[in-house]
Write a structure and sequence with these properties.
It comes from Dictyobacter alpinus. The protein has 378 residues and is of the alpha+beta class. 34% of the residues lie in helices and 17% in strands. The protein folds into three domains: 4-89, Phosphorylase Kinase, domain 1, CATH 3.30.200; 94-274, Transferase(Phosphotransferase) domain 1 (Transferase(Phosphotransferase), domain 1, Orthogonal Bundle); 312-331 and 351-377, no CATH class. The strands form five sheets. It has a six-stranded antiparallel sheet, covered by helices on one side. A three-stranded antiparallel sheet has the order 7-9-10.
């Protein structure tokens, strides 16, 4: 329940009109800037909140320094009696989390558009030496359902810091979005990119990859389990898009995309390539030029060639000559031996007919070690 004591209070030149939301240690109010008549949001945290208060102050300073079209800016911040406050633009539409839960899955086109915006914001923060450490759907605000803002830099820290634990010794972050290496290693750009991968997965499937009854269970799943392939949940997810998502969720940080922008570009390229029209049988189509990283190799007709590399025609001629020589030898022997020739038990039978003269040639029974070899080569 929101604190009623702050409603209708004027702090500086901001008049608080009503409450919007309440979190664990913070409250958000709708206010009006009496100088500009702009509607703004005021996030309030008690100064007695200890470490949370320190993080809130750090968030306000970071957001006031990060000037990017897709990072929610801090218009103002300060203290009021027992409270610390931060003023930001009011985004009426709500969060990406609300968008997914209330309106369903995003199309690949919509997901690519939002990913490009958030990846650009995260890339900018990384280039300024800051890690977000809490990328998640509820920290993405949407204007008109399309224009995205990355917000809530409460866990922001310098990339150069070589620790990832709070002073009380606990990992911080949202378990559903935490990279597996954070259990032992410091946060890094790669762990932010992993969280961005979870965000993409959620946009196209409606769920995060791993859930559990408690944070420990969820973190263990990130460490040891493989996510269900997105295409098994949403058939619209194409193979190339799925490969991009699963690469972003690799357990090994070195196997992920190196920058948020590289991830966004790969996702956009994958879904655009997968969306190319398929040629229709009997109609000649001109395929557009594909990106350099994607090669189309024409299928070659398979030709069976003997293992030795000798052309097949040579084997055929050789086999025919062997058979001819054996027939000549048999006929010659028949003249000499005459009727005294014993019967031969066949191991292979070859019947040759000719349709040109409609006459059947004599059926010859051959017993020779070469016959099976010749037949095998055919």
């Amino acid at each position: 329940m929101l604190m009623q004591e702050l409603i209708n209070i004027t702090i500086g030149h901001y008049h608080i009109e009503r409450g919007l939301a309440k979190g664990g240690m913070s409250e958000v109010y709708l206010a009006r800037d009496q100088r500009t008549q702009q509607i703004v949001a005021m996030k309030m945290v008690r100064r007695s909140a200890g470490e949370y208060y320190e993080r809130f102050r750090r968030e306000a300073r970071a957001m006031s320094q990060l000037h990017h079209p897709h990072i929610l800016s801090a218009i103002d911040y300060g203290d009021y009696e027992n409270w610390s406050y931060m003023v930001t633009p009011y985004i009426e539409y709500g969060t990406l989390s609300r968008r997914v839960s209330s309106e369903g899955l995003l199309s690949l086109d919509e997901a690519s558009d939002i990913l490009e915006q958030i990846a650009g914001a995260l890339q900018f923060a990384h280039e300024k030496g800051m890690l977000h450490r809490d990328i998640k759907a509820s920290n993405v605000l949407l204007k008109d359902g399309k224009y995205a803002y990355l917000t809530d830099f409460g866990l922001v820290k310098s990339i150069e810091d070589n620790y990832s634990l709070t002073r009380s010794g606990f990992l911080i972050g949202t378990p559903e979005y935490m990279a597996p290496e954070l259990v032992e290693d410091a946060a890094s750009p790669a762990s932010d990119i992993y969280a961005l991968g979870v965000l993409i997965y959620q946009m196209v499937t409606g769920n995060v990859p791993f859930r559990g009854p408690n944070p420990v269970t969820i973190v263990m799943k990130h460490m040891r389990d493989q996510p269900v392939p997105p295409s098994q949940i949403n058939s619209a997810v194409t193979p190339d898009v799925e490969r991009v998502i699963l690469q972003t969720l690799e357990k090994d940080p070195t196997r992920r995309f190196r920058t948020p922008k590289a991830l966004a570009n790969a996702f956009h390229q994958a879904y655009k390539v997968d969306a190319l029209p398929q040629p229709v049988a009997g109609i000649q189509s001109v395929m557009p030029k594909l990106p350099p990283s994607i090669q189309v190799v024409p299928r070659q007709a398979s030709v069976q060639t003997p293992r030795s590399g000798i052309p097949r025609i040579v084997w055929i001629i050789g086999a025919a000559l062997v058979i001819l020589l054996i027939l000549i030898a048999l006929l010659t022997n028949m003249k000499v031996i005459g009727q005294a020739m014993p019967a031969v038990h066949p191991t292979a039978t070859i019947t040759v007919t000719t349709t040109a003269t409609q006459k059947a040639t004599t059926t010859t029974i051959i017993k020779t070690a070469f016959a099976p070899l010749a037949l095998q080569q055919f």
